[in-house]
Every structure is written in structure tokens, then in C-alpha cells.
Amino acid sequence: MKKFILAIIGLTIVTTNVFAKEEVLATITNDENKEIFKIVANTDDSTQTLRTFFKDDYLNGKKTEREVLPTKELMRQGLVLEKRGEHTVITLKSHNFDFARGGTVVIDTLFNGVTGERREYELELAKDKNGWKLYNGRIAVSKLHIEINKKALIGSIGVKNIRME
User: Fold this and answer.
1) What are the DSSP calls for 94-163, one per residue?
2) Residues 73-98: pLDDT tens digits?
3) 3-state SS assignment for residue 164
4) Are residues 67 and 54 in contact, defined by beta-carbon separation less than 8 angstroms?
5) Residue 137: which residues within 8 A CB-CB, separation 6 or more?
6) Cα(147)–Cα(158) distance, rounded to whole angstroms?
7) Which residues, in sequence order, are CB contacts of 96 under 8 Å at separation 6+?
8) What is the pLDDT confidence band of residue 145, given thresholds at 50, 70 and 90?
9) Among residues 28, 50, 23, 53, which one has the least CA distance to residue 164?
10) How confident is the model at residue 129 (pLDDT cuts 50, 70, 90)?
């Protein structure tokens, strides 16, 4: 009986993954260290509806961690992409997102951790004939480079800018 239940669970996991496809939405680098992370969308293979987001961390070209981002939080408090101590540094959020068609997403960043000043970068996450893509205006972007805001004697205090390519 145990083997039968394990076989059913295994089959369920395999069939669930058979109908899923992963697409890298963006590769994110920064000018502070060599860490790279990728935002990955897990989509239904037949309908291309977004199911889940992942954040994959890489160091020296090797994946070190995969974090499942709670998809429902995108339209609530946002998906936290980077947190340092008590400070939420980078969050991805939306107020009008449809998981079948897409919508506007906002990258909310901590510009200055001393004053609490934040800045936002608005993008569109949309589906085209080849899959899901991020757009800055009409230009597809797949690389985001975070420029760190630094102050003398203090060091890193936030995100100065995000370059999009």
C-alpha cells in the first residue's frame, strides 16, 4: 500500500511538471559584488499562464539557491527580491496584473536607507508569441544592472539606479 501511494505521489509530481515551462524574465547584476540572480517564470505549457515566480541566485556561475516567490504577493505587498537586515531593498509589485495576459509591474527600490527614500521603475510584463518578457516602453529588457548608492564613511545605502538592457 505504501508503494502504491508513493507511486501516485510521484506520478502526480511528474505530470504536474510535464505541463510546466520555465522562462528567465531577467538576469540581475550589481556593481557591488559578483552575485547574479535571475527571475524565472514558471508557466503552464499549454496556456502560457503564469503559475509561479522563482529567484535563482548564482555565484561564480553556479546556482546556489532557488527561492519560490509567493505569486499572490505580487498584487499585495509585492515580491521581495532583496532584503538587507531590516531594510527591504528591492520589491516587485503590481496593482493590475493578470496571470494570463500580464500587466504593469513596478520595481520598488530603497534609494537611501538612512532617510528611507524609495524610487520606482515601471515595466510591463507581457506575453508575446515566444513567451513572457519584460518591456521598458516598447523595448524588451532581459538584463537589469543595479547601481549601488554609496556614501563616504557609510558605504552602501541603497539603489542609485537600475540600468535596463
Assistant:
1) -SS-BTTTEEEEEEEEEEETTTTEEEEEEEEEEEETTEEEEEETTEEE-EEEEEEEEETTTEEEEEEEEE
2) 999 999 999 999 999 999 999 999 99
3) strand
4) yes
5) none
6) 9
7) 103, 104
8) very high
9) 28
10) confident
Cα–Cα distance, 50 to 39 (Å, whole number)? 13
pLDDT category at 58 given cuts 50, 70, 90 is very high
User: What residues contact residue 46 under an 8 Å CB cut-off, 6+ apart?
Assistant: 19
Instruction: Please name the helix (run of DSSP H) or strand (run of DSSP E) that holds residue 4, with its range, or none.
Output: helix 2-18
Return the C-alpha cell found at 24: 528567465
CA dist 8 and 61 (Å) reads 36
